[in-house]
Amino acid sequence: MKTEYFILRLHDIGAIKFGEFTLKSGHKSPFYFDLRDMISHPEILSGVANLLVDQIQDLDFDYISGVPYTALPIATLVADILDKPLIYIRKEEKAYGTKNNIIGKFEKGEKCLIIDDLITTGESLLETAEKFKNEGLEIVDFSVIIDRSNNIEQYLNKSGYKLHSLIKLDKIIEVLKENNRISNDQKIKIKNFTNKISYKNKTGKNLENHLTKLLKEKIKAKKSNLILSLDVDNQKDFFNILEKTARQIVMLKTHIDILNDFDADFITRLKEYSIKYDFLIFEDRKFADIGNTVRKQYQGGIYKIKNWAHFITVHAIPGEGILQGLFDNVENRACFLLAKMSSKGNLMNETYTRKVFEIGEKYADVVSGYICHANSKEELRKLKNKIPNGQLMLVPGVKLQAGNDSVGQQYTTVEDAMQGGADCIIVGRGITDAENSEAAAKEYHERAWKVYKG
Ligand code: 5BU
User: Fold this and answer.
1) What is the spatial distance between Cα 434 and Cα 440, in angstroms, rounded to a whole number?
2) In a designed cystine with 277, which of 143, 180, 246, 440 is the match (CB 3.0 to 4.6 A)?
3) Could you say which of 289, 304, 365, 442 is catalytic?
4) Where are the domains of the chain?
C-alpha cells in the first residue's frame, strides 16, 4: 500500500475527520485523528503494518512494543512479519501480585523499539520509554504512524532517541487537498491552527526580546551554557573565583545581599569584569511583592540592582502587577520567572507552573524565560515543551553527580539538565566549593556544551 492511498483510506473510514473538535487543552481544532477503528478494516491494518515494516526493518532492536491500546494490534502484526518477540506495558499499574508491569519475556540490556499511533508533544512516548528503561531495557527508536508535531524530532534527538514517522500532517493535508477531499479554506484553517497551537508556541510568534537575543548570541559566541552562581560572602573570594572562571561562563549570577563588605566599588569592578570577559550579569533577587514595593527594591536601596543587572529573577505569585512595577519605564532589562524551583517539597505544582508560563508569554517583552528544575531529563523535557517559543529555560540545582544538600537543595546532572532542554545550567557550589574552581568551571562548561551542540 502506498502512503497516499493509506491517507485516503484513513479519511474514508473516518480516522481523519474535519469539523470543529474541542481538544483536551480546550482549543477548538479543525481536524481530529482517531486511529482506533483501523482494526475493523483488515486491509488497512495490514497495509500500515507493512509500511511500518519497510521503515524499521533495518534498525537494530531485539523486541517490538506497541503503546496500548491503539498501537498494540499494529505492533503485533509488525512483530509477526519481522519475527520479533512482542512486549508491552500494561496501561494501569498493577497494585497486587508480582509487580511485573511489562507483559512478555525479555532480557535486561536488550533493545526495544516502541510503536505508537500518533505523536504530538512526545510526552507519552517519553514516559513509556522511561518505564521500559526502569525495567532495564534500552530504548533508541520510536516508530509512529502520524507525526502531527512541530519538529519534535530534534527534541527527541537531544534526549538520545530517534523518531521514525510514516506520515506528517503536511503530507496528509497535501494528499487530501490534491484529491479534493478538503477545500482550500479548510487547508488554510488547518495551517493556521497548527501554527497557533504548535506544542510550545501558542501565539505562533517568536517571543524573543532584545535581552533574550543578547543572551542567545553570547551563548553562541562564548560556546558556553554555564551560569556561575557566585554565592560567597566577601569581595576578595568573589573576585578571586571570578578571575579564574570568567572565561568559561556566559552569565554570572549574584546574590548581592550575601556580601558582607558590599560597596559601590564592587559594582564598578563587577562591570569591568563583565566587559573584559564578555558575560552578562544576573541578580537572583527573587522579587515577590506588590508592584509598588518591588519597583523601589529594584531601583533603590543600597544595591540599585536595576543599574547593573541585565537580568533578575521574579516570582509570579503576586500576579502580573509585579512585572508592571518592575519594568514599566525601564529599558534594556529583563527577568526570568520562577516556574519550578529545585528545592525539595516546593509548592510549585503543575497548575502553578503552567500559569507562570502564561504570564511569561503575555509579558514576553520583559520575560526572557524561566527557572525550571526537575530530577530527570524526561520531566525537564516536559517543562521545556510547555515553554513558549523563543523563551529560555535555565536550570539550577546542577552538579556532576545527582544528589542533595542538607537543607532541601536537589541536584540533577549536567547531562540530564542539558538533555532535558536547558539553555543554560546554573552552578554554584559545584564550582565555588571545588578545590580547583578553574578546572571545575571548565568541566561544567565543556560537558554542557557537548550536549548542547549535539
Ligand atoms: P548551588 O550551590 O549550585 O546549589 O547553588 C544554586 C544557586 O541557584 C543558588 O544561588 C540558589 O539560590 C539558586 N537557585 C536554586 O538553587 N534553585 C532555584 O530553584 C532557584 C535558584 Br530559582
Assistant:
1) 7
2) 246
3) 289
4) 3-196, 210-453
